Amino acid sequence: MGTRNTDSTVFPKGKHFPAPWNLKGEGFLFPLWAKKDYNREMGFFSGEDSKQYTGGLGSLMLVNYETSDVGPYYELLYIPGNFTYKDESYKRITRIFVSSQKSVEEGILNWAIPKEKADFTWIREENLTKISAFRNGKEFFRVTIATKGFSFPVSTKILPYTLLQKATEGYLSTQFVGKGKGRIATIREIWSDEAVFPDALKGGIFKTGIHSDPFELIFPVADVID
């Protein structure tokens, strides 16, 4: 059972946590086959994003990092599909919230991931998980997910994701590596305030995905792409 996260971890002033990061916990991944018109309009794209966007496979992810280089935190993120840069295809996170301010700062610094701070509830009741996200005390996202069936191995080798995120100068490219045990997950109910986070159903997600518990994830040092 999870409660509203208040981000009480205290770090020495100015301390930096460089990549690579090692993270462990549980998470949900729901694949997306892009509805391009909706995502261009409501996916929190920059002008550059819109020009580079080609659609295709993306995902909605919800993660409970029980351990990380900056302590435990929750995460909600949206990848609306593929983006092309210099004839190469990449994934890109266009909207992401985490419950740790340090994760916000380090995510931007290490990988140019545009993290923002939010509070979360993450409540597990037998085979159901109920997750909500709040900003300034106002709920902007909630989902109820059912998990069922036998467990099976999962790995990023099956579905490799290479991110390309816009940095202050150029781009940062990151291919994270992960593995864990998965079960089938199904969305029972989902809602979002589209002024804050995309409506993932309108954006193209499938209601069936994977619940990985436990998983291990490595976020390596990013490559600089001119």
TrEMBL record:
One Pfam family this sequence matches: ADC
Classification via Gene3D superfamilies: Acetoacetate decarboxylase-like
InterPro entries membership: Acetoacetate_decarboxylase, ADC_dom_sf
GO MF entry, a single one: lyase activity
PANTHER family: ACETOACETATE DECARBOXYLASE
Protein name: Acetoacetate decarboxylase
Source species of the chain: Leptospira adleri
